[in-house]
């Protein structure tokens, strides 16, 4: 039982709702289509969660090995940092969950495209391997891209584009203008979550040589960047749902309320320690938005 609790701590349950937000939104746009598959939808959810768990394990391992997770860091203590798991055991965990995620992805891909669409099959298999690579090498290795300011770009691509557009394409084998725009919303807001994380850790990251985009820009610009991400995301969201022809187009607007509260909180605060609670709030706000989008299309 104790080991289960340790692994659940490594999983970081609070990050999982964000991992499925793009999947929910991508599928919500397909819900009324006769081609919509509930089986594919469920498989997408489990696949996205497994990719996030890889990222969490690898982040724990990579930052722990490099000494980035130390007593000066403001965030919650990690399992490797506390000695709850050894490097070898955590590494095995990364390998196992990577294999599980690829298995889930392969089943999803072949159910979606059969054996007659090898062009799409190969593309999505490539995206699956790219997702595993991105999840691991954000912090793992001497050339971990998160240590060179590229974390924001990869979060935008995978949490926005790959998640929303990938889910939509798997269901309907095409793209749509609303799907593209909503992928931008999820992508920008997800970048906001990472930006908050890096704003919280700016002092320790700079000290250990982790050059996140926040460290590169500086705290003042990072804060303006964060507020811009929120403004652009809300603007696109309002534009999309003022254009779609569904009866309950206004439901997703309810998600703007917690985003405004978050905006004000970030605007008022500058000390890194105040950004930690905002991480959870923004993550849950994105998940809340995805549920509202799903509900609005479900109700039609």
**Assembly form of the protein:** single chain
Number of strands: 0
Number of continuous helical runs: 13
Helix content: over 70%
Number of domains in the coordinates? 1
Content of β-strand: under 5%
Per the principal axes of the C-alpha atoms, what is the gross shape?
A: globular
SS content category: mainly alpha
Report the C-alpha radius of gyration, rounded: 19 Å
Distance between the termini: 45 Å
Please tell me about this protein's structure.
The protein has 300 residues and is mostly helical. Helices cover 74% and strands 0% of the residues. The protein has one domain. It contains 13 helices and no strands. Helix 8 packs antiparallel against helix 11 (219-241) and helix 8 packs antiparallel against helix 13. It is globular and about 55 Å long. The termini are far apart.
Brief write-up:
With 300 residues, the chain is mostly helical. It is 74% helix and 0% strand.
Secondary-structure topology with pairs:
Layout: H1 2-11, H2 16-28, H3 38-66, H4 79-82, H5 87-113, H6 118-136, H7 151-172, H8 177-200, H9 202-208, H10 213-217, H11 219-241, H12 256-268, H13 275-299
Offer a few descriptive terms.
mainly alpha; 13 helices; 300 residues
């Amino acid at each position: 039982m104790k080991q289960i609790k340790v692994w659940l701590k490594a999983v970081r349950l609070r990050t999982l709702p964000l991992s499925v937000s793009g999947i929910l939104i991508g599928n919500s746009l397909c819900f009324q289509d006769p081609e919509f598959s509930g089986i594919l939808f469920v498989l997408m959810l489990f696949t996205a969660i497994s990719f996030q768990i890889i990222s969490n394990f690898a982040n724990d391992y990579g930052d722990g090995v490099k000494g980035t997770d130390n007593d000066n860091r403001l965030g919650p203590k990690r399992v490797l940092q506390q000695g709850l798991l050894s490097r070898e055991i955590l590494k095995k965990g990364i390998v196992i969950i990577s294999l599980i995620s690829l298995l889930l992805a392969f089943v999803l891909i072949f159910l979606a495209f059969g054996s007659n669409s090898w062009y799409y099959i190969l593309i999505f298999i490539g995206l699956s391997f790219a997702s595993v690579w991105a999840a691991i090498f954000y912090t793992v290795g001497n050339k971990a891209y998160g240590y060179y300011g590229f974390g924001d770009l990869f979060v935008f691509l995978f949490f926005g584009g790959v998640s929303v557009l990938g889910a939509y394409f798997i269901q309907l084998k095409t793209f749509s203008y609303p799907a593209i725009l909503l992928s931008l919303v999820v992508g920008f807001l997800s970048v906001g979550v990472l930006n908050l994380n890096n704003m919280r850790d700016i002092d320790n990251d700079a000290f250990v040589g982790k050059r996140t985009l926040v460290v590169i820009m500086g705290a003042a610009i990072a804060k303006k960047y964060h507020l811009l991400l929120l403004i652009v995301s809300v603007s696109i969201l309002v534009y999309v749902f003022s254009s779609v022809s569904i009866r309950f187009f206004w439901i997703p607007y309810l998600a703007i309320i917690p985003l405004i509260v978050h905006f004000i909180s970030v605007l008022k605060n500058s000390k890194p320690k105040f950004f930690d609670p905002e991480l959870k709030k923004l993550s849950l706000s994105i998940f809340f938005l995805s549920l509202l989008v799903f509900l609005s299309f479900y109700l039609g």
